[in-house]
Specification:
By secondary structure, the protein is an alpha+beta fold. It folds into 2 domains: 220 residues, Beta-galactosidase, Chain A, domain 5, CATH 2.70.98; 455 residues, Glycosyl hydrolase family fold (Up-down Bundle). It is 27% helix and 23% strand. The strands form 9 sheets. Strands 1, 4, 5, 6, 7, 8, 9, 10, 11, 12, 13, 14 and 15 form a 13-stranded antiparallel β-sheet that branches. Strands 16-29-30-34-31-32 form a 6-stranded mixed β-sheet. A 3-stranded antiparallel β-sheet has the order 27-28-33. The N terminus is likely disordered.
């Protein structure tokens, strides 16, 4: 490890309070990362223990569907889509019979963010893997040297080529996209060729489906190393990427040390003292998760884009993709805008390039490696643009406004669809809401998915927020007419507000609320006939941009607090089996509140808008302690590449961006007594939570830069300027702190 980096790591480790006894091993930030947290899911998809440098193209995790699966399907080479797809496969065997992919049992597995160790084949083969950004290296050790060893490479659909110690391959990822690898062993095999009918042939090249090559090493072989580069441009570029990152030598220790140093350099942007060892582990593991996506595709100044099937120059601005924006706009993008603003600028520029490359100039919504899949609902790319502009990031606002506007107004609002606007879109423009189908009424818009449905309330609420973000960008550009136009449209959520029940309620095309409607269970699987993945209790609070108006709709502050309390106390109404059969995304319950799905992340903070900040402090601690833990089931729902864990990062250090597009943060209740966030230019945002503990979770008083602070929010400018926030904590709430009218966080201006 570089001496200077090692010194920095030591300094950082000493900042952790009371964590170590004399003689104990020094803990650096990366040592607190536990990639196994959440590897067993509560209901749907678990986390995967990803080996990857921050936002790198080379992503790897063990080739198993879940942690409890007994067998690995060979060894991994690269993940090509977050938690869903991988390319290539490598199998290692000492058996005389060969198959394209060899399943093997595994044991003694150890994973860090930068390397992977495991014993396979009944503990007879040791595997060690270390990664760089666009390359990796395997070291394979054989305990039984009386047998020969064979390494097999597999491509599902592509070209495979082997020549002595060298192996290269391609695999199709889509109609217009391939991924390539080029690699080499440190020792020559005694036999190498294409695998055909279970035998190693003399052929060195084959193209097609399920192609394999195999390389055999003689009895007596104790260890072989294989290193390889990957590319989306060509095999030749893959070899260049390998040479650039690893040089000439086969040195797995060097690759691992460099990866460790880079993770420490990244994670030390947040430094904490106090709290428990488990709380630090959950914090740093959550922070590590936020770097899984998006991934950087730039290779020596060029990148391949599946959005038009071409190779482009990046002109000094790296190109990123694989970002499920519906999940990540709420907290992951704001976290990056705060701590890594230059990277966030490049990510937004990447979105704008995608819009142009697709030929529609529509802002993407689910940009993946293979293009924009248009999953989920709404067009929340506009949110990260508005948020970035008002936090001082460099964004082409005029270009971004137009692409966001086109994505909202020219593309259909029908979920999971990338077609031009259709019938429901014209209805929305005329009436200000997406109509719900009445019982027995047949779908008449071909853009609507049979399974995903119209999601009418969710789409109306999400689009209202998106249109508010458009108004913010228009205001930034100085266009008052457009600002007022989209501000007015941002109130469209009122069109589905039921004043009698005080819920957002699906309404038919004739303007009538759907009758006999149950806010817990109506709407079918995932409540998609009305909402999306969550029921009416979650979407009751989905007005991110205008809680001041929601207070009025509820009948005042006391009514809003009472209804918010009821969300956390309302029973599930059915047994868990029935509830989760219909609403499998709505796990992690506290009453009807779900900690497991992104539309709920801001809900505990809404008390700040109604004069009860102490209840936010109580709920945040409750949510973190109950649902985010240092164990295999320590994440309550799908962790969509920072979707959930960015909430944990923010909430653990005491503040949260409830409304991306406003440069402000709501104050919660930090877990740690001393927190430093590196905000760039040599400045730190410093939070001191005096007497902070598991019991002392309530703010008694606060000062900002030595002056009394009586509001439960802070501005982005205050944070970026390197402020010091001191919170005096106690075990009973101070119900007056931050509660006075006029001290609540800002909301959209009144019409």
């Amino acid at each position: 490890m570089n001496k200077n980096l090692k010194s920095v790591g030591l300094l950082v480790s000493l900042l952790f309070c009371g964590s170590f006894t004399a003689g104990a091993a020094i803990q650096e930030p990366v040592d607190y990362v536990n990639p196994y947290i959440g590897n067993i899911s509560h209901m749907l998809v678990p986390t995967f223990p990803t080996i990857q440098l921050p936002n790198s193209l080379m992503r790897i995790y063990p080739t198993r569907s879940e942690y409890t699966r007994e067998l690995l399907d060979g060894l991994p080479m690269v993940v090509t889509n977050h938690r869903e797809r991988s390319a290539f496969r490598m199998s290692v065997t000492q058996s005389p019979s060969f198959r394209p992919i060899i399943g093997t049992n595994w044991d003694q597995e150890k994973i860090t963010p930068y390397d992977y160790r495991v014993q396979i084949a009944d503990n007879s083969i040791d595997v060690h893997l270390a990664v760089s950004h666009q390359s990796a290296i395997y070291e394979l050790s054989f305990l039984d040297t009386s047998k020969p060893a064979t390494v097999i490479f597999y491509s599902e659909d592509g070209l495979m080529q082997v020549d002595g110690k060298k192996v290269s391959a391609s695999q199709s990822l889509s109609e217009n996209m391939k991924i390539y690898f080029s690699g080499e062993f440190d020792v020559a095999p005694v036999q190498a060729g294409i695998l055909q009918n279970g035998q190693i042939s003399k052929d060195g090249k084959k193209e097609g489906e399920n192609v394999c090559c195999a390389l055999s090493f003689p009895a007596g072989t104790k260890k072989v190393s294989f290193r390889y580069g990957i590319s989306l441009i060509s095999t030749e570029q893959a070899q260049k990427n390998l040479s650039r990152e690893q040089g000439i030598a086969f040195n797995i220790a060097k690759v691992a040390a460099e990866g460790r140093a880079e993770w420490n350099e990244t994670l030390k942007n947040i430094m904490v003292q106090g709290g428990t060892e488990d709380e630090k582990t959950v914090l740093y593991t959550s922070y590590y998760r936020t770097f899984e996506r998006p991934v950087c595709l730039s290779e020596e100044g060029r990148y391949f884009s599946a959005f038009d099937g071409k190779v482009h120059e990046d002109n000094g601005k790296p190109f990123y993709t694989d970002d499920w924006i519906w999940d990540t706009y709420r907290a992951a993008h704001p976290l990056r805008a705060l701590i890594q603003p230059e990277k966030q600028e490049n990510i937004i520029e990447s979105f704008l390039r995608m819009a142009e490359q697709m030929g529609t100039n529509w802002m993407p919504t689910f940009p993946e490696m293979t293009g924009d899949t248009r999953r989920m609902n709404s067009n929340h790319g506009v949110s990260m643009v508005a948020d970035a502009l008002y936090k001082g990031l460099k964004v082409d606002a005029k270009r971004a406004f137009e692409y966001c506007r086109k994505g909202i107004e020219e593309k259909t609002l029908a979920p999971w669809c990338g077609n031009p606007a259709g019938w429901i879109d014209e209805f929305y423009k005329e009436h200000g809401y997406i109509p719900a189908l009445c019982k027995g009424e047949k779908e008449n818009d071909p853009n609507v998915s049979d399974f995903e449905k119209r999601q009418p309330v969710a789409v109306t609420l999400g689009t209202s927020y998106d249109e508010w973000c458009l108004s913010r960008i228009a205001e930034y550009l100085g266009d008052k007419d457009l600002q007022q136009k989209y501000l007015k449209l941002s109130y469209n959520y009122r069109n589905v507000w039921n004043p009698e029940t005080k819920f957002f309620h699906p309404k038919d095309k004739d303007g009538k609320f759907i009758e006999n409607f149950d806010y817990r269970f109506s709407g079918g699987i995932g409540a998609r006939d009305a909402y999306d993945e969550n029921n009416g209790w979650t979407y009751r609070w989905d007005v991110q941009h205008n809680f001041a108006d929601l207070v009025d709709l509820m009948g005042g502050r006391e009514d809003l607090v009472r209804n918010l309390d009821q969300t956390f106390t309302e029973s599930m109404g059915r047994g868990k089996r029935e509830f989760y059969t219909q609403l499998p995304d709505q796990t992690g319950n506290i009453g009807q509140f779900t900690m497991a799905n992104e539309p709920s992340l801001h809900i505990p903070y809404i008390y700040n808008y109604a004069g009860a900040p102490w209840k936010t402090q109580k709920r945040i601690r409750q949510c973190l302690k109950t649902w985010f833990r240092n164990d295999l089931m320590g994440i309550p729902g799908d962790e969509d590449g920072g979707g959930l864990t960015s909430f944990v990062v923010f909430s653990s250090i005491g503040f949260y961006p409830v409304t991306p597009g406003f440069p402000v943060y709501n104050i919660g209740s930090p877990l740690f007594s001393d927190i430093k966030v590196n905000v760039g230019n040599g400045k730190f945002f410093h939070i001191i939570a005096k007497n902070c503990s598991d019991e002392n979770k309530y703010i008694q008083s606060a000062t900002l830069n030595g002056k009394p602070l009586n509001r439960p929010w802070i501005t982005h400018e205050e944070v970026k300027n390197g402020a010091t926030l001191i919170l005096n904590m106690g075990n009973r709430p101070n119900k007056e702190w931050g509660a006075a009218e006029g001290n609540e966080p800002p909301s959209a201006q009144k019409l």
